[in-house]
């Protein structure tokens, strides 16, 4: 069964970029222990867009869904009361893209 890739496309205003990156940095390690997790990258736009890409690869759709309904939900859920600036989203929009890995390559040697 092929791995699945989830790309969360986050629209981030220029003034919120540092906030978004700091929030991801402070959560470093939060997903790595999840069953079926294979890879993570936070991709910063270089030119022509205000959209960050959050790339994750999973062993299966089921593993991704288990993470979404478990530790990810706990990390992002509820608790919006009295959170002040910290609880405001850095992104003004979000879209989730889903893919299956059909080919891959790594460096030789």
Folded structure, characterized:
The protein is α+β, with helices and mostly antiparallel strands and 109 residues long. It has helices at 17-26, 61-69, 71-76; strands at residues 4-11, 37-43, 51-58, 93-100. Strands 2-3-1-4 form a four-stranded antiparallel β-sheet. A hairpin with a 7-residue loop joins strand 2 and strand 3. It is globular.
Number of strands: 4
Main sheet strand line-up? 2-3-1-4
Helical content stands at 10-25%
Based on secondary structure, the structural category is: alpha+beta
As a whole number of angstroms, the C-alpha radius of gyration is: 15 Å
Q: Summarize the main sheet.
A: 4 strands, antiparallel
* Overall pLDDT confidence: 87
**What would the principal axes of the Cα set say about the shape?**
globular
Strand content: 25-35%
- Cα end-to-end separation: 26 Å
Q: Number of helical runs?
A: 3
Which H/E pattern describes the elements? Answer: EHEEHHE
- Unreliable segments of 5+ consecutive residues: 78-84
